Amino acid sequence: MSLSAELNSRTRFLRACRGESVDRVPVWIMRQAGRYLSAYRAIREKHAMMTVLNTPELAVQVTLLPVDTFDLDAAIIFADLLPPLIGMGLSVEFVPGKGPVIHNPLRTNKAIDRLSVPPAEETMAPTLEAIRLVRPELNSREMPLIGFAGAPFTLASYAIEGGATRDFAHTKTLMYHEPAAWNRLMLKLVGVVVDLLKSQVGAGADCVQVFDSWAGALGRYDYQRFVQPYSRMVFEQMGNAVPVIHFSTGTSAYLDLIAAAGGHVIGVDWRMDLDAAQDIVQRPVMGNLDPGTLLGPWRELRPHVDDVLTHMHGRGGHVFNLGHGILPNTPVDNVRRMVDYVHSGDWAHGRS
Ligand code: CP3
Predict the structure, then answer these.
(1) Which residues contact 325 (CB under 8 A, 6 or more apart)?
(2) Ligand 1: does its nearest atom lie under 6 Å from the Cβ of 81?
(3) Entry pTM
(4) CB-ligand 1 contact for 191 (6 Å cutoff)
């Protein structure tokens, strides 16, 4: 039997994550269930973000929106990076128009020592229940489900800064002044992250992604000393039961260190050509279209998609994605056209 007769989205995606041959490049989109979808905005008009996160039936509905709208090859559970911090003792609020804010950011040794490490089954029960509920829905669509968590550094910096930051001033102050407290914090986060990821796999996730979205804040020297040892613990403890994607942004200058920390697939942003990234990491890669290109017209978007695909053409182990999350005002038609174009294979034959 030919590959195309055998493969469905689930097998195609999982084969690509293992670097095995596939009939077409699998596609999913980071932040695919978000504000660029009118059906998502309609749900959010009725329910607060925290309500959607904490109501399994709503989280399932939102998880399915993008996979029922576009010909995607994977679903990602609707959740967020920050709720695990709530279970540890932080007060997280999603402020409309602003993003998540932590009202009691970590600034002292004492606050770090007070953080608890409760089991995900207790503190992340709605997300785990959403995974159990969405699994049969995805089975009937022959779709894989991706679970996820923040990497220890991205979670630590969010917890210390209390919100978005440009300079990571509080994080770096704590890291340099209190290396022992930093170590204790990172070890607690490793425990929370591994437990959450394993619980998601236990509930039915086929694959998990570790988001180190903020890892690019550091130079090589600091990534190596303050981040890599803890990320490595996460990947080592996850083992090989399911593919683990290691995603980061702004880390082109130390992608070798990111890869050495671990992950079966390395998620790469658009600042580097994907084939060059694969030469460094020596394993399957995910990415790396600039999400901003989806704001342009097709005549501009298409050559950008071609650029990503042709860099990887003939190489194994590519999961097509954006280099970071899709932007809220992205035209839905561009998303549909992009997904269908990747699948069509027309780019590989030089046709339009
Ligand atoms: O990919 C998906 O569709 C799954 C859902 C998902 C969300 N957040 C839902 C969400 C995922 C994978 C995340 C990850 C996440 N959350 C990250 C890492 C990924 C990245 O893009 O770097 C980070 C840093 C967060 C924290 C967070 N949550 C921020 C900074 C914000 C506000 C800014 C923004 O991008 O919207 C959120 C809110 C959030 N998380 C929304 C969604 C759909 C928007 C909430 C809304 O207003 O409806």
Answers:
(1) 30, 31, 34, 291
(2) yes
(3) 0.97
(4) no
Please tell me the distance between residue 325's alpha carbon and the centre of ligand 1 in angstroms: 8
For residue 348, report the distance from its CA to the centre of ligand 1, in Å.
33
| Residue 184 among the catalytic residues | no
Hey, whose CA ends up nearest to atom 1 of ligand 1? 31
Q: Are strands 75-76 and 99-102 parallel, antiparallel or unpaired?
A: unpaired
Question: CA triplet 95, 248, 12: central angle to 5 degrees?
Answer: 105
- Whose alpha carbon is nearest atom 25 of ligand 1? 81
User: β-strand 318-322 against 75-76: which pairing, if any?
Assistant: unpaired
192: left (phi over 0), alpha (psi -120 to 50) or beta: alpha
**Of all protein residues, whose CA lies closest to atom 36 belonging to ligand 1?**
99
Q: Does 262 contact ligand 1 (Cβ within 6 A)?
A: no
Per-residue pLDDT of the chain in tens (352 residues, 90 and over written 9): 566 668 999 999 999 999 999 999 999 999 999 999 999 999 999 999 999 999 999 999 999 999 999 999 999 999 999 999 999 999 999 999 889 999 999 999 999 999 999 999 999 999 999 999 999 999 999 999 999 999 999 999 999 999 999 999 999 999 999 999 999 999 999 999 999 999 999 999 999 999 999 999 999 999 999 999 999 999 999 999 999 999 999 999 999 999 999 999 999 999 999 999 999 999 999 999 999 999 999 999 999 999 999 999 888 899 999 999 999 999 999 999 999 999 998 887 754 4
d(CA 197, CA 333): 33
